[in-house]
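Write out this protein's structure.
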Amino acid sequence: MAGGGFVSASGESHFEAKITFAVIISCIMAATGGLMFGYDIGISGGVTSMPSFLEKFFPEVYRKIQDHGVDSNYCKYDNQTLQLFTSSLYLAALVATMFASSVTRTLGRKQTMLIAGIFFIVGTVLNAVANSLLLLIVGRILLGCGVGFANQAVPVFISEIAPTRIRGALNIMFQLNITIGILIANIVNYFTAKIEGGYGWRISVALAGIPAIMLTFGSLLVHDTPNSLIERGLEDEGKAVLKKIRGVENVEPEFQEILKASKVAKAVKNPFQNLLKRHNRPPLIIAVMMQVFQQFTGINAIMFYAPVLFSTLGFKSDASLYSAVITGAVNVLSTLVSVYFVDKAGRRMLLLEACVQMFVSQMVIGTVLGLKVQDHSDSLNKGLGVLVVVMVCTFVASFAWSWGPLGWLIPSETFPLEARSAGQSVTVFTNMLFTFIIAQGFLSMMCHLKFGIFFFFSAWVLAMAIFTVLLIPETKNIPIEEMTDKVWRNHWFWKSYMED
């Protein structure tokens, strides 16, 4: 690779780089932000199915569950305040990410991750000691601020620091940690639900402090990205960090690309106004739609409320938590599939294959529940119960190697530097907005639509497949600062948005 850069036989340009220890450690440290986020997703669903937690904070729901004469088996958890407990975090994250954009740009990716960790630690402490619903929700709001800042900074940090040829795999470390966090939370809930005395939920909530501390200390240990340093005028430091993370002395070609992008970025006075310019619309539209589609697959509905869902289907308390652990394990293993294939098979193939698998899974689940689960039934028979769990796992697996990680990867790698912080902010904002909508509405939707909720989500999966075929380009092996020339100018539709 003499001369710094080269062009492969396929016409793809690369910069000289080794896979260094500094890159791997930086990405692992940054990805603990995903562990933090995932643990919270997993813990909230399990905690809200614990009788001791419901009796203390949501006595109306607790009484409804104890009352076997409840109007519908699908409706026993339908309570707006209970849904607000889960969704308040995402509403806070939605607001926080708008501030996180300017922090990421002015203070850098590293400092933004540090702020995220501090928010999360304080929120965890408040939740663990909460004796009132108000304190519980204030803690959730602080956790949401941490999620907003972490999801803003971490994917951008990883995309900027990773060598081009393994950028997809390293970026998926963020999503992998989300799935590991969910699995750990499900296992923790399984054991804390058995603790006598009604304080098991406090242990579940308090353990969220561990990934928060990991992210906080990790952010103190890593270097900021060369792109961020150069964008903020620290060119010498940026070049030194670039040499360290690439493991080579000749970083001039990549340095010049970043320098050129940073000069364009510095000329931008209003990042969000710039984001609306015609040449930024392709990555913006794709980023927004991928977040909408990601939530309307129904994945968060299943992951938030897996214990509640299985309980609703008639599984006993232990069995429902155990089933949630199974889906969590499938989630982790399937994300590893994505780590392996994303830079080999490419982004589009994973997205399209998953659409087929998710559609079939949702249709089968909806059909089984529609035919066999009556409003007041106490259980599915064993065979159909196993079929539902298998279909849920099939659905989770396909999401975990596609729309889950790629929903964060593709937006983080396709925006030009001058629009990257603002673009990531809009990405996180949209994700949190629709996560909030799903979290706030799912239990009510399940009550009113019953089994039809799975047909509702499957219709969205069909729309996702059409959007992918027509409008999502392949971005594997394309240097992050060359997306305009290599991707957008060559796309049948988006090329009309590119200026000379």
